[in-house]
Amino acid sequence: MLIKRPPDIPFSEVTPEELYVNRRKFLRAAGLGAAALALGPGALAACANGEVKETGGEVLQGEEPNSYEEITSYNNFYEFGTGKEDPKANSSTFNPKPWSVRVDGLCNKPGTYAYDDLVKPHTLEDRTYRMRCVEGWSMVIPWQGIPLSAMLKRFEPRPAAKFVGFTTILRPSEMPGQRRGVLDWPYVEGLRLDEAMHPLTLMVTGIYGKALLNQNGAPLRLVIPWKYGFKGIKSIVRIEFTERMPPTTWNISAPSEYGFYANVNPEVDHPRWSQATERRIGEFRRRRTLMFNGYADQVASLYTGMDLARNY
To answer: What's the whole-number mean pLDDT along residues 260-285?
Structure first.
């Protein structure tokens, strides 16, 4: 499911929101409903003939994507405040341009890469993923981005690299939340290298065909759909390949509550609340939480033999 982008078209103009709306109307008219919402434009002819192919876990049966307003108005981004409305209210002065990312550690091509050098060599992909927050709410979000594996391979990780760490920008003059001691700043996250290289893991540049807004992690953020949302580090300025498990912000802050893996597991409760159900934003009734957020068929093999109650 690829969106081909000629080199002279800005990323912010790829797959505009109205195309999503028209695509949804077409699919409903064809009797396919939300089951095919994540298919790219090139697949519409097959849809019209009644053929729906499930690609990479992205066809979400009976699940309508949340609206652009919901996705951009209800967020966790503690750099701009701890309330769900704070990121939108407090991020207008943040400037994500120009942007660069430092790449270092156990790789053969370290360096500081400008945003365009990181993004433009790749074809943006259009993916609709379930997203589950550890606090018990969820959304379905149409992302645009680059498979993280494609980006990381360019840096040629060395055989000794077993993990990859990420760091958010530290800019308290523009991020009021960083002026408070709520967390240790800057925000840091990490993945095992095989998790980072999994086809579902996405380096995101946009939502609904529009460039990421500040409150959603502009200009680059991580999305790992089978993990809780706090693993999705935003406004990334550093990528580091390491031999040892890198530190992660929430594990530093509350190790008894937040582990390194953060896989969605309805059978392992947070110490202060159940994880068995979730509330989809825009719905009244709670839903049953799915193991690995519904992506078990694709990712469960990554954790064969692991005790997922201990490795939470």
So the answer is: 96
Instruction: Give the DSSP H/E element, type plus range, for residue 100.
Output: strand 100-105
Domain made up of 11-303: CATH architecture: Alpha-Beta Complex (3.90)
Pick from 99, 305, 301, 52: nearest CA to 200 = 301
Joined together, the tokens standing for residue 249 give 């912000």
Global pTM value = 0.83
- Provide the edge-to-edge strand list for the sheet that holds 111-114: 111-114, 100-105, 236-242, 163-168, 188-192
CA distance 283 to 190: 32
Amino acid at the residue 78: Y
Rounded-to-integer distance, Cα 1 and Cα 13, Å: 18
The 10 Å Cβ neighbour count of residue 72 is 19
8 A C-beta contact, residue 35 and residue 164: no
Cα–Cα nearest to 161, from 190, 201, 127, 182: 190
Distances (CA, A) of 118 to 154, 181, 231, 257: 9, 32, 21, 34
Query: Closest Cα partner for 164 from 172, 155, 173?
Result: 155
- Summarize pLDDT for 38-75 with one digit per residue, the tens: 433 333 223 333 333 333 444 466 689 999 999 999 99
